[in-house]
């Protein structure tokens, strides 16, 4: 009997050691893929421990996903060495909803009976530029505004242009637009600036730096202009779908706290808060055989996050994560 117990203990030790080695190897692969370096051995050990806990959470979730109990898959990505609290403070931002109503020219609404296509994807018509990467600057709002404006410029002129997020980061801080640059902001304020300023520079003339700098707008390098700003009726997913289908990609701000581990599928989280901390672009919608109705959303964390830089989010399920609460688009 003692021999059997000893064998079982030895097997358990071997399995534990093997699992530890596997996780360490996965962590090393993670560091290599995402170019991670840490200031010292203590910090690296801390990040390894966080990675291991996150990997356990991901694996547990994915067992439920494979069993048909979840609508989306989780995966290791560049945020896998962060705690959820660090993810919120380093990657997301805090936005005050009271600041999202300024400078609107009109409200877009539609009848619930309006006939809409079953699916929309503006990438198919060439109206969506490649996914960009905001880096460590909390400038999602600028990428959201630029992403929508680039698409509307294409739809209006049939000309593709890459516009300058850095122009918005630098030139909408302080009065009268009161964005916070790399500390956060609202797309609607960025649109106000472009409309009032008479244009926004091209990305090639005013490249992205990922940090706050002085305003260097040059009227000789205008890439696009805005004549009006339209807000979607707040919280109305039917109106948002109509605007996406009939007008083009829409700038939205929502709660991104569930995005840290997202890999693929339709993110369906009924408990997702309605506090706002991230801005993106809705470029389409559709219905998935597993996840049901979804919004097709372009993020600004690079193509190595999510579904090649995109996320599909639950649609027609009580405005999850406040996706339809702060939706706006520019009129060229």
Automatic annotation (TrEMBL):
EC number: 3.4.22.15
Top-level EC class: hydrolase
GO biological process, one term: proteolysis
Statement: the UniProt record of this protein carries the keyword Oxidoreductase: no
InterPro entries (UniProt xref): Papain-like_cys_pep_sf, Pept_asp_AS, Pept_his_AS, Peptidase_C1A, Peptidase_C1A_C, Peptidase_C1A_papain-like, Prot_inhib_I29
Catalytic reactions of this protein: Specificity close to that of papain. As compared to cathepsin B, cathepsin L exhibits higher activity toward protein substrates, but has little activity on Z-Arg-Arg-NHMec, and no peptidyl-dipeptidase activity
Gene Ontology MF terms in the entry: cysteine-type endopeptidase activity
Keywords carried by this UniProt record: Disulfide bond, Hydrolase, Protease, Thiol protease
One Pfam family matching this protein: Inhibitor_I29
PANTHER family given in the database record: CYSTEINE PROTEASE FAMILY C1-RELATED (PTHR12411)
Summary of subunit composition and partner proteins: Dimer of a heavy and a light chain linked by disulfide bonds.
Sequence similarity: Belongs to the peptidase C1 family.
Entry protein name: cathepsin L
Organism: Drosophila albomicans (Fruit fly)
Organism lineage: Eukaryota, Metazoa, Ecdysozoa, Arthropoda, Hexapoda
């Amino acid at each position: 009997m003692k021999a059997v117990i000893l064998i079982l203990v030895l097997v358990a030790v071997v399995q534990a050691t093997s699992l530890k080695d596997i996780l360490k190897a996965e962590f090393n692969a993670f560091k290599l893929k995402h170019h991670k370096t840490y200031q010292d051995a203590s910090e690296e050990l801390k990040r390894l421990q966080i990675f291991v806990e996150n990997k356990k959470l991901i694996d547990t979730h994915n067992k439920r996903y494979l069993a048909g109990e979840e609508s989306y898959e989780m995966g290791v990505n560049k945020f896998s060495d962060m705690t959820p609290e660090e993810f919120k403070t380093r990657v997301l931002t805090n936005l005050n909803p009271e600041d999202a109503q300024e400078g609107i020219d009109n409200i877009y609404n539609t009848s619930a009976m309006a006939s809409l296509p079953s699916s929309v994807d503006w990438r198919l018509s060439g109206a969506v530029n490649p996914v960009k990467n905001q880096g460590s600057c909390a400038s999602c709002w600028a990428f959201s505004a630029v992403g929508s404006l680039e698409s509307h410029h294409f739809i209006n002129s049939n000309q593709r242009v890459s516009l300058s997020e850095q122009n918005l980061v630098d030139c909408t801080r302080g009065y009268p637009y009161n964005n916070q640059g790399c500390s956060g902001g609202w797309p609607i304020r960025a649109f106000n600036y472009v409309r009032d300023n008479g244009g926004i520079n091209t990305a090639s003339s005013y490249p992205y730096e990922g940090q706050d700098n002085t305003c260097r707008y040059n009227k000789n390098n205008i890439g696009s202009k805005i004549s009006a700003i339209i807000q979607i009726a707040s919280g109305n997913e039917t109106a948002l779908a109509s605007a996406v289908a009939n007008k083009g990609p829409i700038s939205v701000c929502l709660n991104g706290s569930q995005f840290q581990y997202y890999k693929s599928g339709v993110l369906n989280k009924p408990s997702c808060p309605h506090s706002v901390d991230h801005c993106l672009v809705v470029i389409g919608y559709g219905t998935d055989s597993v996840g049901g109705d979804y919004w097709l959303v372009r993020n600004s964390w690079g193509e190595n996050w999510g579904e090649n830089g995109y996320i599909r989010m639950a649609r027609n399920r009580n405005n999850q994560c406040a996706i339809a609460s702060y939706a706006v688009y520019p009129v060229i």
